[in-house]
Each structure stands twice: as structure tokens, then as C-alpha cells.
Design brief:
The complex is a heterodimer of chains A (122) and B (319).
Chain A lengths: L2 E6 L2 E6 L1 E3 L1 H15 L6 E5 L3 E4 L1 H16 L3 E5 L3 H10 L6 E3 L2 H8 L1 H8 L2
Chain B lengths: L2 E6 L10 H15 L7 H10 L2 H4 L8 E5 L5 E4 L5 H12 L6 E5 L23 E6 L4 H7 L16 E6 L5 E4 L2 E8 L5 E8 L2 E6 L9 H11 L4 E5 L4 H4 L11 H10 L4 E5 L7 H18 L6 E4 L5 E3 L1
Parallel strand pairs in B: 3-4, 4-5, 5-6, 10-11, 11-12, 12-13
Antiparallel strand pairs in B: 1-2, 1-14, 2-3, 7-8, 8-9, 9-10
Classes of the chains: A alpha/beta (122), B alpha/beta (319).
């Protein structure tokens, strides 16, 4: 699984694509890992627009990330989920674990207007 | 193997509907009549059948006790939770107190909610009956005796009039017991628990409660998939949501509906039955969990559909 990430001010946006299942869980975890302990990262936003499915093992990676970020008072959010992925978050109650936003731009706007402006500027 | 009958389906401790719960159900049922009248019991029954289960029924509140009807005269029971008491009364009602029976009682583990029904199991007090307890814990007999010692209970274990036997089942092996092949599987739970796979007449039923699946070890998941493989029914501990089971309630020894679906699909199970319900969840919440679990099965399905149900006290699943 290829996971691109970009930084906007103090926010990192990670963009996984495809299915986050047993096979993809380890690369997913590795991709998030460097941002979890980075004190310069105040929030991690996962742009889920390209995610088709996430299984329990993928959700567990999000739980680990959430715990690590919250420990240092950083935030984690998921944006632009497809309807079926949003259903999985509701069924698993992970919609209460991470902040959920309909769009990436909307997430950035709430978390940091400076980051949103940087995003708008490309 | 003919039927699975659930006598207790709740986890951790028994619960009961309150007056307020009953009133809310009555209000919902009366509201839904929308002015209809009923000129016979049959028309009333037909109306009640149209109501959602969480309005017309209840999941019940007894702790774990499941009967397997094998086709033999002997009784086969999984766990001795508070549901064992109504089972004992029903067993005596079925054939009368003067007809001695053998009861094969498989114990998943020794936590209180899984053994608390035994002191109230009337057939144990009746001479002529035979009770055979099966388990993989070496402390099985001591635990069953201890809960009836003073000051915890007024009647000691030695009062039982039935013949009592204890059979230790080695985990990781298949045993010929009560006309069945019974495979015992170690499960992650504080103090250990054991799942049972019962096979007879080409049918397989798995009783797997109080079992936490950590998801971090693919080899462990494969072991459970092998244990569940092609089962007609898997009775699965789905006490918590996945979010709870991986956060505040991690290491509490229980699993979720999500993991139940994934493991059972991996094992090509025909029917997943959610079990060991969280006592804090009311009927409406448990019904919502069932609907969501069916939807998750639909989302993740890659082969034939798997039936998903949620156990309730009194439910019978015909095999």
C-alpha cells in the first residue's frame, strides 16, 4: 500500500488508497508511525477519499495512532470517507475514537485555519 | 445434533427488565396499533408478530447457559450461568423428577457468571441423576465446591444427591464424549477460557465465549479459523464494540461483532450467533448491534451469505 503524506503547517495529511486489510495493515502502521511521536505535528488527518474498505486490523492501527497522539495532546481525524467506510466506522464505534469530517478542507479548517490556507495555496 | 437452545445469553452478571422498560415496550406496542382492534387471540398474536423483537420480546438477562440437543437422551449443556436454573426446571418438567437423566456439563471457565447457576440446578439435588462436568481447568471441582461453601451459600456442594463426576479435557485435542467429537481450544481470557467444538452426525457447533482476539498475530487468527472451520453455528462472544475492545476494555477478555464476522467469514462458517451480551445494553441497543452486524457481513462478504443472529434467552436454533 502506498500512502502519500503532506504537511500543512503543523498538520500532517496522510492519504491511503485502496483496502486497509490484513495485508495493508503493516505498511499503514509504518506510514503513520513517524508522525505519532513528532512533537511538531499537532494533528494527523487521514484523507480517506481513496479508501475502499478498512478491516478490524486496520482500525486497530488507528486506535494505536489515536492513543499515541492523544498522549501528547495531538489530534487525529479522518476526512472524506466513502459511505461504506463511514458505515464501518459507525458499526465499530470508531466514529467516536477519531474526529470525522466530510471533507479534507473542512477538517483542516477546523483543526488549523493556517493549515487550510496552506492547503488552498497548494 | 438437532438443536441449540439458549437459556442464558448475557455476559458478566444477570440483568432484568425494569417496570420502566416494560412500560416503554407496552407504550410502543400500543402506539403502533394506530387504533386497530383485535377480535381474537389469533389476530392479536398476528399483530404482535409484526412488532420488532426489541418491542415484542427481550434478549433476556440470564448469564451463559446453552443446551445442545444431540438426539440422545442425555442432556448436553455449555456453562453453568444463571440460565442453568430455568434449564433445570424445564428438564424436570419435560420428563418428571422420577426419571433419572445424565447431564453432560461443559464449562468454558470458572468466572462467577459461568458457574453461578449450579447451586440452583434442581436436578443436581435429585438422587439417580448423573452430572458429568467437563473442563480444561484443573481447579474446576474446587471452584464449583467453593462457591457453595459458607459464608457464600447456605447449602454445601456435598448436599447434591446426584452422582457427580469430573472429567478433565486436555486442550488442543479432540475427545469422544457423550456420543460427540469434542475439540477443546484455549482462548485468551483472564485465568484462561476454553472453547468447544461439538461434532456429531455431520454437524458442527462451536461454543466460543469469553475469548479476546488481539488481531495482532495472523497465526492465532488462523488457529481460530481452523477451530471454526465450516461450522454450522459459531456461538461467539461479541460483548463489546471493536472500539471498546481495542481501547478502554482491551485485555478484559472479550471480543466484538466485527471480529466475529471477520473470523467466521475466514472460516466459512454458516451461521454466526452473537452471544455474551453486555449487561448495560438494553434490548433496542442489542437489536441495533444485530442489524449493524448483518450489514457488516454484507459489506465484507466475498462468498455465500453467512447467517447472523443474536442469541436471546429462549431462542432455539434448529440444525
Amino acid at each position: 500500500m502506498q500512502i502519500a503524506s503532506r504537511r500543512y503547517d503543523t498538520i500532517v495529511v496522510a492519504t491511503p488508497v485502496g483496502r486497509i486489510d490484513q495485508a495493508a495493515a503493516a505498511p499503514f502502521e509504518r506510514a503513520l508511525s513517524p508522525h505519532l511521536a513528532d512533537d511538531n505535528v499537532e494533528a494527523l488527518v487521514l484523507d480517506f477519499g481513496g479508501v475502499e474498505y478498512i478491516s478490524s486490523i486496520g482500525l486497530r492501527v488507528l486506535m494505536v495512532a489515536s492513543k499515541a497522539l492523544r498522549k501528547r495532546k495531538a489530534r487525529i481525524a479522518v476526512a472524506a470517507m466513502r459511505p461504506v467506510v463511514a458505515e464501518i466506522f459507525k458499526i465499530s464505534r470508531f466514529d467516536a475514537v477519531v474526529e470525522v469530517f466530510p471533507s479534507l478542507r473542512g477538517a483542516l479548517g477546523v483543526l488549523s485555519p493556517v493549515a487550510r490556507d496552506a492547503y488552498d495555496a497548494g | 445434533m438437532r438443536c441449540i437452545r439458549f437459556w442464558g445469553t448475557r455476559g458478566s452478571l444477570p440483568v432484568a427488565l425494569t417496570t420502566y422498560d416494560v412500560r416503554a415496550k407496552l407504550a410502543a406496542a400500543l402506539r403502533a396499533t394506530a387504533g386497530r382492534t383485535f377480535d381474537s387471540d389469533a389476530s392479536l398474536d398476528a399483530y404482535l408478530d409484526t412488532l420488532p423483537f426489541e418491542v415484542a420480546g427481550t434478549f433476556g438477562g440470564h448469564t451463559a447457559c446453552v443446551e445442545l440437543e444431540t438426539g440422545d437422551a442425555d442432556y448436553v449443556i455449555c456453562d453453568l450461568g444463571s440460565g442453568l436454573r430455568p434449564f433445570g426446571q424445564a428438564a424436570i418438567a419435560r420428563h418428571g423428577p422420577a426419571s433419572p437423566r445424565t447431564y453432560h456439563l461443559f464449562v468454558s471457565h470458572l468466572h462467577w457468571d459461568h458457574i453461578m447457576g449450579l447451586p440452583f440446578f434442581v436436578p443436581a439435588y435429585v438422587p439417580g441423576n448423573r452430572l458429568v462436568f467437563y473442563g480444561a481447568h484443573t481447579e474446576l471441582e474446587a471452584a464449583l465446591r467453593r462457591q457453595m461453601d459458607p459464608p457464600s451459600f447456605p447449602v454445601p456442594f456435598s448436599t447434591f444427591g446426584a452422582t457427580i463426576e469430573f472429567v478433565h479435557l486436555e486442550p488442543g485435542r479432540t475427545h469422544a464424549v457423550a456420543g460427540m467429537q469434542v475439540t477443546v481450544k484455549h482462548q485468551h481470557h483472564t485465568g484462561d477460557s476454553y472453547g468447544y467444538r461439538f461434532e456429531k452426525d455431520g454437524r458442527a457447533v462451536v461454543y466460543s465465549t469469553d475469548s479476546e482476539h488481539k488481531l495482532t498475530n495472523p497465526a492465532e487468527s488462523a488457529e481460530f479459523a481452523a477451530f471454526f472451520r465450516d461450522a454450522d453455528v459459531v456461538i461467539f462472544d461479541a460483548m463489546y464494540s471493536l472500539a471498546e475492545a481495542t481501547s478502554v476494555k482491551a485485555d478484559w477478555g472479550h471480543s466484538s461483532n466485527i471480529v466475529g464476522v471477520e473470523l467466521c467469514q475466514l472460516a466459512q462458517v454458516k451461521h454466526l450467533c452473537l452471544f455474551h451480551h453486555e449487561p448495560a445494553l438494553a434490548d433496542a441497543a442489542l437489536a441495533a448491534v444485530l442489524a449493524e452486524t448483518r450489514r457488516y457481513e454484507q459489506i465484507t462478504r466475498s462468498g455465500p451469505p453467512m447467517q447472523v443472529s443474536s442469541a436471546w434467552d429462549g431462542l432455539e436454533l434448529r440444525l
